[in-house]
Design goal:
The protein is built from 14 helices and no strands. By secondary structure, it is mainly alpha-helical. It is a multi-pass membrane protein.
């Protein structure tokens, strides 16, 4: 079974194999510095650079849209700003927008349209749980922004790697080790330190954002499984959005109907008092949905090309940037303990990245010795 927490090894091995297979009399599984064919080295290095540039483009795209939508959501849901108190409704609308954009994209580009469709049994047992987890992640994240600062939200969401590892253990996709367990505990300690020193502590908001982080770990673990199963017809990011968005929209819509009340929503004079106000409000919602689509496409492409953990690691730098922006735009206050807790969390994620790279090197060395 494909490992969800160490898939970088497989992807890099695949790159090396496919490139080196063009070289005469050279083992395709060895390091480039061990190859004697300088032309082969050039071809391999060229492909590695090309792959790196493409990955960096997707990371940059993800950084841009993820940061924009974080700032946008905080502005929209915060009582101090636009004060639109219906995050679940907005999230469900985002899913509808993403579904429509995915359908248009698949209809326009046949090359990315899967020929296989998931059957009802697979869809209900595999896709629906992933969609519900995704919906809960997004819904709880947006709801928490009503009460917590953007910097506190971002710091708590940095715990997602710990939940990714936890669900990898739970699904037996990764063998538990003392090192990985220690990393989970280290990240957890960092989060506890950040939470305990928050200047504007809101217990409900903290529970919501940590629950969102938990659902995020489950969400991306299940997403990578779906992307790797061609029999599900979700081996392309756009197809994944197309099949998951309806489940996410329905689950979020039902939660919005129950907990927010649509009759109260449409009676809001400031947002739906007349046609113009309604169009402006829905324009804001739709614009955020487009940004969410572009962000999600970038996320899925990164997972497909690398791994869910690579996404989490790259996300640390995005989160640091988001915290800096939140202190400048929303004047969030960072205490020394906040910063220390964030530093511990980042150290834990960096340590995990180091372990992955060492495991990758050992695997390559083992292949070369065979």
């Amino acid at each position: 079974m494909k490992q969800i927490v160490q898939p970088q090894i497989q992807h890099h091995t695949s790159t090396a194999s496919s490139t080196s297979s063009n070289l005469p009399s050279v083992s395709p599984q060895c390091y480039p510095h061990r190859l004697s064919d300088s032309g082969g080295d050039d071809r391999r290095n060229s492909l590695i650079c090309k792959n790196l540039i493409i990955n960096l483009m997707f990371i940059s795209s993800w950084y841009l849209f993820a940061t924009l939508i974080s700032l946008y959501n905080k502005w929209m849901f915060s009582p101090e700003h636009y004060d639109f108190q219906y995050p679940l409704f907005v999230s469900s609308c985002h899913m509808v927008v993403q579904f429509v954009l995915a359908a248009i994209t698949l209809a326009s580009f046949g090359s990315i349209r899967p020929t296989i469709r998931p059957n009802l049994k697979d869809y209900s047992k595999k896709a629906v749980p992933c969609g519900i987890a995704s919906g809960l992640d997004i819904g709880l994240s947006n709801t928490s922004l009503k009460t917590v600062t953007l910097s506190f939200y971002t710091m708590c969401k940095s715990s997602s790697l710990a939940f990714v590892l936890f669900f990898a253990f739970l699904f037996k996709l990764e063998k538990p080790t003392y090192k990985l367990t220690g990393i989970i505990l280290l990240i957890t300690a960092g989060v506890i330190l950040m939470v305990s020193s928050e200047t504007k502590f809101e217990f409900l908001g903290m529970v919501q954002v940590l629950s969102a982080s938990c659902m995020g770990g489950l969400r991306w673990s299940l997403t990578q499984i779906l992307l790797d199963k061609r029999s599900m017809g979700m081996n392309t990011p756009i197809a994944t959005i197309f099949w998951l968005a309806p489940t996410m929209a329905i689950s979020l819509g039902l939660c919005s109907l129950i907990f927010e009340g649509w009759s109260k929503l449409v009676a809001e004079e400031r947002f739906f008092g007349d046609l113009l106000k309604g169009l402006v409000t829905m324009g804001y919602v739709t614009a955020a949905g487009v940004m969410a689509f572009l962000m999600t496409v970038s996320e899925y492409f990164l997972i497909q090309r690398t791994s869910v953990v690579t996404l989490s690691i790259a996300g640390i730098f995005k989160e640091v940037g988001t915290i800096l922006l939140s202190t400048m735009i929303f004047h969030d206050v960072m205490t020394p303990l906040n910063i220390s807790g964030l530093g511990i969390t980042i150290f834990g994620i960096g340590l995990y990245n180091y372990l992955v790279k060492m495991k990758e090197k050992i695997d390559f060395d083992s292949l070369c010795l065979k």
